[in-house]
Every structure is written in structure tokens, then in C-alpha cells.
Amino acid sequence: MLQLRADVTPQQIKDVESAIRELGLRSQLVIGETAATLQVIGDETDKDLHVLAGMQGVEKVTPVNAPYKLVSRRLHPEYGLNGHTKVVNVAGVEIGGTSLVVMGGPCAVYNRQQVLETARAAKEAGARIMRGGAYKPRSSPHSFQGLGKAGLEMLMEAKQETGLPVVTEVLDPRHVELVAQYADMFQIGTRNAQNFELLREVGRSRMPVLLKRGFAATLEEWLCAAEYIASEGNMNIVLCERGMKTPFQSSENGRFNFDIQAIPAVKALTYLPVIADPSHSTGKRALVTPIALAAVAAGTHGLILDIRREADGPIIEYVKDGVAMKTAYCDYEQALTPKELETLAVAAKAVHTAMHTPV
Amino acid sequence: MLQLRADVTPQQIKDVESAIRELGLRSQLVIGETAATLQVIGDETDKDLHVLAGMQGVEKVTPVNAPYKLVSRRLHPEYGLNGHTKVVNVAGVEIGGTSLVVMGGPCAVYNRQQVLETARAAKEAGARIMRGGAYKPRSSPHSFQGLGKAGLEMLMEAKQETGLPVVTEVLDPRHVELVAQYADMFQIGTRNAQNFELLREVGRSRMPVLLKRGFAATLEEWLCAAEYIASEGNMNIVLCERGMKTPFQSSENGRFNFDIQAIPAVKALTYLPVIADPSHSTGKRALVTPIALAAVAAGTHGLILDIRREADGPIIEYVKDGVAMKTAYCDYEQALTPKELETLAVAAKAVHTAMHTPV
Amino acid sequence: MLQLRADVTPQQIKDVESAIRELGLRSQLVIGETAATLQVIGDETDKDLHVLAGMQGVEKVTPVNAPYKLVSRRLHPEYGLNGHTKVVNVAGVEIGGTSLVVMGGPCAVYNRQQVLETARAAKEAGARIMRGGAYKPRSSPHSFQGLGKAGLEMLMEAKQETGLPVVTEVLDPRHVELVAQYADMFQIGTRNAQNFELLREVGRSRMPVLLKRGFAATLEEWLCAAEYIASEGNMNIVLCERGMKTPFQSSENGRFNFDIQAIPAVKALTYLPVIADPSHSTGKRALVTPIALAAVAAGTHGLILDIRREADGPIIEYVKDGVAMKTAYCDYEQALTPKELETLAVAAKAVHTAMHTPV
Amino acid sequence: MLQLRADVTPQQIKDVESAIRELGLRSQLVIGETAATLQVIGDETDKDLHVLAGMQGVEKVTPVNAPYKLVSRRLHPEYGLNGHTKVVNVAGVEIGGTSLVVMGGPCAVYNRQQVLETARAAKEAGARIMRGGAYKPRSSPHSFQGLGKAGLEMLMEAKQETGLPVVTEVLDPRHVELVAQYADMFQIGTRNAQNFELLREVGRSRMPVLLKRGFAATLEEWLCAAEYIASEGNMNIVLCERGMKTPFQSSENGRFNFDIQAIPAVKALTYLPVIADPSHSTGKRALVTPIALAAVAAGTHGLILDIRREADGPIIEYVKDGVAMKTAYCDYEQALTPKELETLAVAAKAVHTAMHTPV
Q1: Which residues of chain D have a CB within 8 Å of the CB of B138?
Q2: For A151-188, how does the pLDDT look when each residue is reduced to its tens digit (9 = 90+)?
Q3: Domains, in order of start, for chain B
Q4: Which of A8, A156, D85, D105 is the most buried (most CB within 10 A)?
């Protein structure tokens, strides 16, 4: 980390960046409220950064040997040790700080009517960002894999009607450009938590990224995934806890175990905002609401929830290559109805208010 | 399960119990609000309980093949499917229903002054039951093992002064009788979650039992442990979630991972009340308060917290066999100061109120 | 699954394939020793495959609802229930059946001399396939990421000199074509165990694939990953167990826990061969040899091992963009010296012989 | 740790022991081949053991701050760093060193005929120690709990007939004295891995103890459990790996995951012998043999296996309080038939020989 002088000039910065490149490293300029720093990207082993200390515009050189630097709270004192977070702006909706953002929508996009109706219902029930999957990472290749571009178009239509920004998953670095044309926020799913090439590719965009924690990722591995995105220049990252794979999953206790400790723990390690997905962690409607409220009490900045229409049953229709198909509604058991979402949103607000009311 | 007729006589019950014994089984009478049942204890394999259907006083015979029956919500319709819980009375303090009980005290008892001062402080900060360990199960035999009977006497003195009922751990079936003379509630610790002989022994008492979940126990294994207590006739059981051993423990994320889903999930399976121990799950002061509040939002009936005096340092004194000793304060990193407990208690009450206020 | 008649004609097969496509599904022809089948790929929900039963050339239609079909032993009776495996040919080296193949090489490729010398040493010590990483998936973006194409060229040179076929990791679907020009076998690493787009892309090649088990993958998830490759037509798959993430990792017990049960268990579920990677599971030289021998005794078809030169130290040199760099030798602690590999290979052969000698 | 002088007198030892007691600590005399040491038991925090350095007979004082000392290889250089183990003598059968001991018998004792016949068959098939449970720790109180004393008598009869020493589980510190009258080796089961009062009680005996690893115990926790036994003076301890609870248990992959790495890893930490239980880890007959052979290849000193009679079905008869009962045969799915045990024993010997034949 190179702290720059208050009167550093653009040319001086260029010279320092160039000197860093000559060492085989890269750098990223971070302009804070009171000062600017150059964070060094790459392996500092055997590099003596102190040779840069004499360069014009350089205030101080601090070699940092850490797996993540750009997203570290400790290395960004401008956010304070337990304090403020970055606020990520998703097409006008702000995530971070002291607000609580509810996101909702269908797990997967199947047909135009389903998406439009679910989006309207989600909005009415209090959601401010719409979720929906056009590319679906399914354990088996024999399961429904999403509608791809056709699904993105349906999401776009729902967005134009409701005004809700859209978050949708991207699975393949080759799809990043296309998805960026339709969505307002990339989602990186739990199965791609260490798909580093994909992380790099969304890092080359400037569109916000919702980064789910790998279901078997430690906090450090999660933050390193964020660091991959940041190392390409995209700092618009929102973390999302979505449950761990443990020996204690069961039909009663859910598909995964929501790691409630991760919320305060990761907030102490990074200044990025963190939201909670109680739908995919629990996999079970009856558990979604209590876990959502618990996440609010633990300090989450938002909730992302699977929603389905009241009338949806476990089988749903879609069209693929012109053929009418039916398939099992993905993650049906965990989707809330709009009415349930509304009740949850009201309760979440009450808990959030109780948390932020001075005594 | 044998449902008894409304006009069943004591003699008829005795006759049925005797017939059950002749089958090599035992039974337990449960008198509900509207009816009485005899739950069959033991292995029903190859037993035709229907032979009892013709006996006087028997309304209906329903063979049940389940690992736990006595503590099952499904088999106790008097509590409703998602509804009421048993209320367990601990020397006047009621746990269960819609109240929220805060328990606090030192992890371990070291000396008279420490116990008295911590108890007073805990009471002032809002605790209604005092915790404190006289027998300590430590991973290593070289660690401080507790003061035993001398510690129980100190707890008794603190109880007499403050009026707070005492919950304390019992480790050995041979100590149950002694501990019962001093305490108001047994604690069964996580390491004894499948110490079936100890569970049976506290089941033979009628004193309430705080049953911690094993750190590697499924919900079913936890409820089977409760069933061991119940099968000896003691139904005064309070469950306590205290964290799972997962691959995701770390110095940042805590010693164990609090299983927030367990709270609503176990409440659907049993009518017993369930409380939360955020101190031992997190092992870290900074995580205790957010996890405690999350547990309240998820529906816990109580909190149990490690407290230490403001001035306590990481080393503390005690006397053993007349020799003055010093030792590391057990679980020092996770103990709240009285001031922190007070802040937590106020916030917990606010969240609890938000949860129970109709909208 | 459609069993075809013995006298089915190519045109009849085409007609059936076309009819399957009209149902919105795909198919794959599998020609066994005594008969041919068409396996249906895709979601059979709501599809009545029996309409195909009347078509010419179709012997029998059996709808199959399973997460994996193409790689399932149960659905491929030609391999027998506990019996034979597919033999995968890697540039002349056969994996599967009753042989035991040792693969070895450096974890990562750093420079020409290192690769050549390690390859020679590995060959002399008994390795028949060379491993080596040109693209390295590292938890942190600040760690050495591999030499990419330059590394592939070094591997090619080592192959030309030693005659050993090369297995190397591919991380990005966009690199598949390039890697195929240099390597004889793709490696899919544990972090990409559910990178479905990458799996599909190597499935479109016909080059053999070494598919590592995800460190948090169940056997079913692992076989579903293989199914993604197979569903694109590439059946040349070798599975590789490489350790689970559990709560019991420790500096003494290794970075991951090798799942010895997975070897016989997965062999009962699939006819694909399965090899063992004791280097990455244990992360520790002292554990590599006993775990390798255990894997042989449990029935593995091969071993893949990290090797380094005798003289290699924990820091190694490479050149990046013309700049001379030094970095920590990746996974240094787990790499065997050639001498250790030789001793292991001899012991492995002795155990393998003992296993296959009739008593 | 106090190293004593070669010419230390019994009176001098007594004096030193007494001085240690005055510090509030205890000690244990260990007489090695070339020297004697006093290991200090208890919490050394704040104790200056160097005050003992001047006492007569004391060669050197080395304060040790470790969770386990008595069973540590590092603190017992007489066994060498990777070398020899203690040999534990179980009524004439030696466990440890380079031999491989097979133990077998029924999971639970149900009736006289079953025990006698299974014992005879186990002996013929190659077992040298007989296992069998008279006290059974079952998850549910409604399951068969063992015959207790009557079961011990049946085991005694089988031992008298076959000459095989008996290992049997003890669950309750109050049963230790009784069990010692019938058995030759205590078994501490996985559920009592941290039942410290029970560990202490078998430590007060001098009968050998088979200490199973807790299914959620780290290596350190396992060795601390051994240390509890040792700290009461009983050094006749044999460790037994029996499978971990992980997220990867499945009907195919077994009830638990055998930790093959634990065998070489724990042998590096302690000089105690370590055996393997593939029956309870896998819970599945088809996996028992490959895992047993793998354990031998990894360096285990013995195997303990569940055996049943050829003709045994999943339901078996017993008599309780004079009533004829039937129950599910405990762990039926994992029990080998005598013929299977024989095949396994021959293969195990072949692997063991291959391991110990110099090349």
C-alpha cells in the first residue's frame, strides 16, 4: 500500500504506477475522502516496495502481505473499524449503510406471464429489487437449465413495467457482456464461489455484483473471491450469506445451515455491505421468515427472497426451441407467496427499527 | 400410545400399566387438559399393542414407532402444531410461552467474592436466573476442573443474597443428588449430549433440566436425549442451542457456528421451550450481542450468557486443598461485562416486543 | 432409455433421435458389446416417452428419472454390478481395469528447467503420466496465477522429451481449445466441481478428463458433474478423490480429509475409473505415502502426486512479462522428492499385487 | 516434567512428589528404559516448577504447557519420533509394535447361543480378541439397551470356551467395577469421548482401555481423552478410529466417514497403538473390507469388526425380566459373516506382509 501525498499530481501517480508495473505487479488507485492510496495487486514475495518510497508524490510505503487487501476494512481506515460500509448503488437503490433493502422474485424465469405477475406482486409486497434466474446452475444436466437470453428479455420487460432493478445470475464469462445489457446487478452463485475467471470477468465490468458465499467457503475464501472482482477494478460488490453445508442439514433443519455469525463477523473484516438469503439456506418456507428476521437483528443490509405467485403449483410450463414443456418449479418448497412476503417485510422493518432506535 | 377413556379409573390405569409391563415394556401417564394417555416406553418391535385395546378404560391404541415420543409435538396435539409450548418453572421463573428469560453468570466459579459480585451485577443488568459452573468439563485434564462442592456452596450463597435461581452443570450420575441440594436447574453440557446414563439420572429427579444440544448432534439426536430424561418421568426440560462444529469455525467467525435454523425447526418438532447460548457458540464478545438478538428474532424463549466482573482479567485466583492457585479465566474472551449485558437485555427486549406487537 | 433392436438401421436411429428432439429432449447413442441404447438427456417431467415405443428399431422404452444416467453403473449392465470399469486411454496409457497408474509432476509450472528436470525425475521414479499446472486457481488474486500459454509450451517440451502424456488444469471455457493443443488430458479442479459451463465445454472435446471431486461435493454431486461432461458426448472421464472439507482438518491431520470410503462407494455407483490424489488432500508430505497406499488397498485405479526436485526450496523463480520474479513454491509442503516417489511406487505395487493375488 | 537422576532414591522421589502436591499439583512417575521422569498433572499457570530444581534426585526441570503430556510422543523420546509404540497386553494378546490384531464379535449380546456361536466362528475366522456389547448406548431410549450383567455373563462363558479375551463397552462410572470382573478390556464408545468422569474412572483401573475417537473429535481432543485416563495412572490405552460425522455421509458413502489420515497423523503425536473400526464408520458391509485393508496399508495396529452368524436375520430374540422379546439386530447391515471375516483376515495379512517386507 502506497499512501500518496495530498498534493500528488496525476503525472506523479502515472510514474508510480509505471514503476510498480516494472516490478511485475499491478496497482489500483483508491481515492478516499482525505487521501489517496495505491494498493498493490499481485505477489509481493521478494519485492522491495520501499524502493518506491523516494518517488515524488509518495508519502509512505507499507508492504502488505494479506490474501485480500482491496476489500479489507483494516486497510481502509476511512470506513472505521466497526463502522460505516460502502453504499452500492443498484440503478438507484442503495445497499449498505443503515437502510434495509428487500429483494424478491422467482427463483427461475419460466414464461412471460409468470415473470410479470411475480414481479408486480413482489413490488407490491415491498421488494425494491427483483431477482430471477435466466441461467440456472442445476446439479444435474437433466434438470431445467433456464431460458437464457429469452429469459433475460422477460426480466427486462418486467423491469420496464415495475421499475424494479434486476439482479440475475451469470454462469459463464462468455455471457457477461450479454447479461450486462439486461440486468442491473450480476449475481455470482454459490457454486461459482471460486470460479476465478468468472469473478475476474464481472470485475472488468462496473455493474454491481451480488457475491454469494460458497456453501463451503470460509470468510477468508469469500473475501478473496470479492478481491478477485475488486482486483479488476469493480468495487461495487455486495456480499450475500446463503447457508453452509454442514453435517446437520435435515429435512427439518433445512438444506443448508444459515451462518448467522457470518453477518457480524464479515462486517468486521470488510467495509462491503452484506445481505442474507434465507430462501436458499433453509430451502423451506416455514424457516424463511424466522431466519430473515434473525438476519435483520444480526445486522444484515438486505434480504433476498424467492417469491412465487399464489396460484403456482409444483409443476410449471415453458417453451424451449418452440416445444411446450413442463418442469418441476425450481425450489418450490422455499418460495414465499406475495402475502407472506408482505408480512415478512413488515416484521423485518419492525425489527430493523427496534435495532436502530436509541434507548 | 394408549388414549384412555374420560371415565378411566385409577385401578384401570394400574391394570393397563401392568399389562404393558408383561409385554416387557414400560409406560408413562400423561394427563392433558382434556384427556389422559399412556405413552409406551421401549422397543415395540414384534409387540402387538392392540391386544390392550379391549381392556377397560382404554379408548384407543395407536402403535408408534418413533425414536422420540414423549417430547414430540406431533404426538401431543394438546400443544398445537405450531403453537404453545410447555412452560417450565425454575424456582418461580417461568421459561416458555411468550416470555423471554435472560440468564447470566460466570462460566466457572473460582472464589466467593467473584461469584457474589458477578451475581449481583448480573441481577442488576437484568438476569433472572444465575448460571455458574462448579464442575467444569475441560478438554484437558490439566485445566482447572471446578471447585465441586465448595463451588456449589458459593452459588447457594449468591442465590440466597440475590434471590436468583441457580442453574449449574452436572457431569457425573453420582453427583446428581448432591447438585440437586444446591441448584434449581441441572445443566447437561454439550459434551454429555449422549451420556445416556447421566440423562437417565437427571430424569429420575423432578428438578428442571437445561439440555444443551451436542455440538455435533442432529435435531433428532437432541430430542432423543430429551426423551431419555422424559422416559424416566422428568418432563421439566428446556432445550438450549449452543453452536455446531462445522468446517467454518475461525478466529473471526467464532469457535462454533450458532445454528439459528435450529430454533424454529426444533420448535416445530417439540413442545419444549428452547433457549440460546450465544456465548459458547461464538466464543467471542463481539459476536455475542448480534447473535443473541438474532436468536430472539428467530423465536427463542431465553438467553444464557457468560458474565464477568468489569475488573476481571484473564487470570483469576482460587484455593484448592488449601493451596492458593491462579488459573486462566475460563472462556474469558466471550464473557460480557455487566454493562454490556444491560445494553443487550434492553435491545433484546426491544426486538422481542417488535416481534410480538400485532401490526 | 431406449433399447434398440439388434437389427436397427442408421436411418431408424436418426428417426428416433429426431422424435426425441421434437419432445424438447436430446439423446446420446451408446453402443455396447451386445446392444445399443439411446439415453435421453434432459428433463423427462411430463414427457411420455412410451410414444416412441412403436417406432421402428426400438426394442423397449424405459423412462429413467435419475440425476445421472450416462455414467451410472446401474443403467449400464454391460459393466456388471461390481465389476468391470471403463478403460480410459490417455495417449496410450490406460486407466481403469486392474492396472494401477502413477501420475506425478510439479504442482505448478514456473520455468523450463524446473519442468524438464521434474518430468525426467518423475518418469525415472515410475510415473507414467505427467501432471503440471499452467493455469492455477489460487484462493487469493495476489498469489501466483500460473504462466498460462508459456507454461503449456514448457509442458509440451517435457512431454516430447520424456514421452509422458500430460494432464493439466483448465479453468475457463475459453481456454479449452488452447489447452487441448498441448495436453493429453484436461484436469477439472476441485474449485470448478460445479462450474457447469466449463464441464460442458470439456464435454464437447473428446480428450480425456480428470474430474476432481469438489471438496464439498457428495458422491451424487460428483457424478452429476461427470454427467455434464458425458451429456455433451465425452465419455472419457476419470474421477479423482482429493479430500473433503470437514471440521477435523488441522495442522497434524492435513488440509482436507481424504475420503477413503468414496473409492469403493463411487465404484459401486459408476463404471468410470477412479484415482486418488493424496497430495492435495493431506497437504503434508508425511501423510502422502500412507494415504496413497491406503487408496491402493481400497481399490483405486491410480495415484496422482505432487513432485518437486530434490534441491527445490520454498521459493522459486519465474519470469512474467519479461520481469524476473520469485514466489512461494505452491503447495511445497506436500511435494514428494523423486526418491520418495520411487519408494512409494514400489510399495504401492507391492500392495496392489497383494490385493490381486488369489489366495 | 522433572527428569530424575539415575541414582535417585525412593525417598527422594517421595519428597519431590510431596513438594509437587504442596504446589496444588499432582505427578506421575514414569520409569523408562534409561531414566525415570515425574510428569506434572494439573494447571501449571503461575507455578514456578523451577523451585524444585534444587531438590535431591532431580536432574532437570522442564515446565510443559500442553493439553496432553503423558500420552505425547514428543515428550516421550524413549519411543522415538516416528518409531516404536507402546505394546498393550490384553490378557496375553499384544497390541502395538509391528503385529496386526483382528478383533471380532457381535455388536450386541442378545442370547447365550448367539454369543457362543458367534465367538466360535470369530475365532475360527482369525479373530484373537472378542468384542460384544452388554451395555448399548442407543440414540433412542426406545431401542434395545443391552442385557447388562446377564450379557457380561454370556461373554464370560464365551471367553472360557474359546479362550478369546473380551472387550466390552462401559457407559457409566458406576459400572466400571462390575465390568472389570468379566472383561479383559474396557471399551469407551464414541458418544462418551468427552465423558470425563467415566474416563477418569477407567483410569483408576489398570485394565486396558480401547478408546474410540469421538465422531466429532479432533486429534487433540482424542488425545486429551486418553490423557484423562492416563492422568489417573492407567497407561494401557489403545486408540480406535471409527469415523467422523461430515456433510458427506450418505446411504452410499456410509454412516460416517472413516478418517484414514488420522491413523498416520495420530501415530506421529502419540506412542499409543491405534486400531481401526471399519464396521461402525461405514455402517455397510460392502465398504467394510476395502476400508479395513486401507487401514492396514495406512499403518493400523489392529482391526475391530462386527460379526454375526451366517443364519442371523435382521430380527433377533432375547429375554428381558423373564419376558421373551424380539428386536432389530443392532447394526445388522454392517456385520460380516464368518466367511467374510476369514477372507478379510487373509487379505489383511497379505497387505500387512507387503507393507513390512523390505524391498
Answers
A1: 196
A2: 999 999 999 999 999 999 999 999 999 999 999 999 99
A3: 2-65 (3.30.70), 88-356 (3.20.20.70)
A4: D105
